[in-house]
Amino acid sequence: MTLDDWLAHCERLHPKTIDMTLDRVKAVKERLGIAFDCPTIVVAGTNGKGSTCAMLEAIALHAGYRVGLYIKPHLVHFQERCRVGGAPVSAESLEPHFAAVEAARGDITLTYFEFTTLAIMRRLQHEPLDVVILEVGLGGRLDAVNVVDADCAVITSIDLDHTEYLGPDREAIGREKAGIMRAGRPVVVSDPMPPQSLAQRSAELGADLRQLGRDFTFSGDRSQWQWAGRDKRFSGMAYPALRGVNQLLNASGVLAAFEALADRLPVSAQAVRTGLALVELPGRFQVLAGQPAVVLDVAHNPHAVAALAQNLDQMGYFPRTHAVFGAMADKDLAGILARVAPLVDHWHFTNLPLPRAATAEQLQAAFRAAGLKTPPGVTTATHATPLDALHAAAAEATPADRILVFGSFYTVGGVLQAGLPRVTAGRPAEQPPTLH
Q: What average pLDDT score do residues 223-235 get?
């Protein structure tokens, strides 16, 4: 079976896409004998997880370590979720590990996420690694990644998302994220205003809580920034290559995690500087060079979109902004649209290729019903695919304009199917022949 065959099998296997229990995953993990004999870092949070994982990986790589990373979701190809040595593994190398999970599970049913998580963990286990970084999917306490006892837990910003599973407020969501903590082990919290439930759970467990503003701090001016932890300091650093107003929060949490693991995973100041300067992560306020400018961002909840709006506002003047937007139907669509609506002149709403997604027409209706503050003469249109929407936005844009592609990973991934698009004002976007 090919990787695509296995992924289709995983989608059919379990009646629920989300099943809030760890019992089945733990049982299959034990049958497979999955365990890591190197330091493991688990990253949870509402926003900033992907950026945090990417910076952890980049610094560790430049420190000379062999790094395994599980990050999700993917933008184009599933194997983007499993990285070894800074690059995605091949689809073929994952196939025997899917087969091993299938053989080990017996009569135990697994969700798509549980099955694929176990397969990727087994793939990473078979590499000679110095550090493993695992990104949590939904929540923390009952997420499949939490079958691993992390040597260091990192919890990024916490906000309202997936409230039907995680609870109605930040305190409840914080309790779920706190599930990745382990007794006596460090847990880094990079949210500057964390819910009290994180500190409460840490105290109950006896975890080594390292909180932004208390155990580590950062400051900066227009040209450089500095960080101070319990024992270490870094000064005169260039800003991370990942753009955006929240990246210093994420980078500060990353440095606190390395400080917590310094006895097992020491990193030099040069590795920190080089790693942060060269880190890459597609779809996180990614600005493509050219005219018009194109911004790609997977912000898909109000908290992330508020940061996106601030980043857009700091880009400078553009006569018009054209937005390509697609999202899941269960998101706070009014909250998302309200934060960016004052900056957008022309909306291109798009369908996405999965049942959970809102249709382009539903997005358009939500926009009209919300009564939002918008620029004069704002227009809306609907499209069958993200690429169709990008073509339309490019065709009506001038060289001085800006095109924003945001929302679900499927929205950004949809315009990256054949690589970075070449956008020319007044013409539909061109796709390169191969990924690059």
A: 95
